[in-house]
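Hello forum,

I keep getting stuck at the same step: I have a sequence, I want structure tokens, and every attempt I make locally crashes halfway through. Rather than fight my setup again tonight, could one of you with a working pipeline run this one for me? It's a single chain of 195 residues.
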Amino acid sequence: MADLESHGEKELLIQVTAGMPWAFRTLFMKYHQQLGAYIYRITNSAEIAEEIVQDVFLKIWLNREALAGVQNFKAYLFVVSKNQALNCLRKMAKEQMLKSQWESACTNMHEDDDLNEYRKLIDQAIDQLPPQQQKVYLLSRHKRLKYAEISDEMNISSETVKKYLQIANASITTYVKENLESVLLLLVFVNFLKK
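Reply #2:
Ran it on my machine without issues. Output:
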């Protein structure tokens, strides 16, 4: 009986190798539940087991020409699946380790470093402003002048001062938002190296 089943499976593998979808579907239906249970015991996750089973069968279909040399398909299938599951677990462990290192580095960052880097970022944003907007912004924020005082000093209307400040604030906010992530990454990296 086992020999007859083995003979039928060899024929099925030949059909799969030839690209016959019905033969592949037959193999999938025959093994996917057993394989899922096996992978579940390794990963302890139904979702991961399901994903691995799908990945393994996709690989088998995409590399079906290699099936011609397979003598024991079930053994081949389970070895490929075990390797896929172990690779998946290694990848998850590595991602978890990196996530933990990232969180640790973020937690250990000094507030002074954060504040200094944030101030540098704002200074860079101010430096990017057109000269008139920059002057209005600095007179308003650093010298604490009122709109009318800035208007008199620069010989422009109070409405123009107000408009320049609105545009400058929007530009600075946009610049900081766009560049804050890279500064944070740099701080995390520098703090990580200090350990």
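Residues 118 and 180 are 8 Å apart (CA to CA). If your local run keeps crashing, start a new thread with the error log.
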